[in-house]
Amino acid sequence: MKTQQIPRRTFLKGAGTALALPGLEAMAPLASTAANPGGDPLRMAFVYAPNGMIMKYWTPEGKGSEYNLPQTLAPLQSVKSEIQVVSGLNHDKAEANGDGGGDHARANATFLTGRQAKKTSGKDIRIGVSVDQLAAQKIGHHTRFKSLELSCDKTRQTGNCDSGYSCAYNHNISWSSERTPVPAEVNPRAVFERLFAGASSREAMEARKRRMTYRKSILDTVMDDARGMQSRLGYTDRQKLDEYLDSVREIEQRIERAEQLDLHIPDVSLKPEGIPKSYKEHMRLMFDLMVLAFQTDTTRISTFMMAHDGSNRSFREIGIGEGHHHLSHHNNRKDWVEKLAKIDHFYVEQYAYFLKKLQSIPEGSGTLLDHCMIVYGSGISDGNRHDHDNLPVILAGQGNGTLQTGRHLKLPGDPPMTNLFLSMLDRMGVEEQRFGDSTGRLEQIS
């Protein structure tokens, strides 16, 4: 059978549904640019972990390719060749700089902006455009959604959350302007419906109600279109499409299971939201949805705040009942330090899950991970002292062949983290002379 070429922007459509497709061999290649040489689009994401790390268990011994992963980073062993552990970056604008307390609010607000937050708990907030939103403003028109913002914490936009700083600073890492945060979505169901809903929100809502009533999958609405598509594809593409549809259905089923569990809550006024009871499952669902968004080129830019800085979440699923923020002020108590190291390890496990999922998906001549730049980090290094220098940072993915991976990069001179962001923007095809408090480009990542 002769394979027919199909447009890159092809959707499987049904009532209230528009299911974007992954990259297939039959698709016309995208034009080659600096951001996608060979036609492979480049994606950029930022994953935030709160309250700093136990740095002695985070920082590798050795440098370059001659290094071993320490205990906190051990979950990354199978993708070690795909990451750079970057030591030495700092966020000076997260320091007090005369503003007193509020390190957690500043850590979140400064993380992707490189700007000093105006200390206020009122409406006169001011910080700066974040790196993800700057890229979204410049290249977001190439995809269905300019960007995708995710979190496992319900956001707060008003009130005093940290020593006179607005909750907007604590609960947002993405900013579309100096006064406008971009709230993250916490509900996996809402993200799923957003990714796969048709153009009409009313039609999409009605279609969802019908699916819920008759217990139908979102895939049921597009199967006629899918069968027609299969007849036009070669063997490899048919297999890839089947695997993709299976992954969509698997995520949908996990969201449904979370909703069914919520139905047993005695208070009938509580509406099922598709948020799993398990924090681990919640994070993994969000990572899986980000993978689908990248795989289908629905967006090329995403952020995921696993928890806001200052979060006092407990981790009973790994045997820790105390709150994370409470433990972070450990004063070198050995038992508290060990519990924090266990939390750090738990967060890195979820990041490793995400990277492995990206690595498992073929795309072009490589994998989806090869065509990504995924930053993992925190705006605080030592949570006990609220340090904002020598930040814990990992850069994963080969950036379409422009990044040197498989090493520990130890940077001299305490460069600002915004130097890294400026270099990432270059690769996304966004040319800026400065970003935040940058002093130049971070050439060492190449």
Give a brief outline of the structure.
With about 450 residues, this protein is of the alpha/beta class.
Mean pLDDT: 90
Percent range of helical residues: 25-40%
Report the order of strands and helices.
EEEHEEEHHEEEHEEHHHHHEHHEEEEEH
Which architecture name does CATH use?
Answer: 3-Layer(aba) Sandwich
The main pleated sheet reads as: 7 strands, mixed
Distance between the termini: 43 Å
Please indicate the count of domains: 1
Radius of gyration: 22 Å
What would CATH call the class?
A: Alpha Beta
- Principal-axes shape call: globular
- Report the CATH topology name: Alkaline Phosphatase, subunit A
- Order of strands side by side in the largest beta sheet? 7-12-3-15-16-6-17
Low-pLDDT segments, ≥5 res: 263-272
Structure description:
The chain has 446 residues and is of the alpha/beta class. It has a single domain, classed as Alkaline Phosphatase, subunit A (3-Layer(aba) Sandwich), CATH 3.40.720. It is built from twelve helices and 17 strands. The chain has helices at residues 55-58, 103-111, 131-139, 167-170, 188-196, 201-214, 223-230, 235-262, 279-295, 324-328, 334-359, 417-427, and strands spanning 11-14, 17-20, 43-48, 61-63, 66-68, 83-87, 148-151, 160-162, 165-166, 175-177, 180-181, 301-305, 362-363, 366-367, 372-377, 393-396, 407-410. The strands form six sheets. Strands 7-12-3-15-16-6-17 form a seven-stranded mixed beta sheet, with helices on both faces. A two-stranded antiparallel ribbon has the order 1-2. Strands 4-5 form a two-stranded antiparallel ribbon. Strand 10 (175-177) and strand 11 (180-181) form a beta hairpin. The longest helix is centred in the middle third of the chain and has 28 residues, at 235-262. Mean pLDDT is 90; it is low at 263-272.
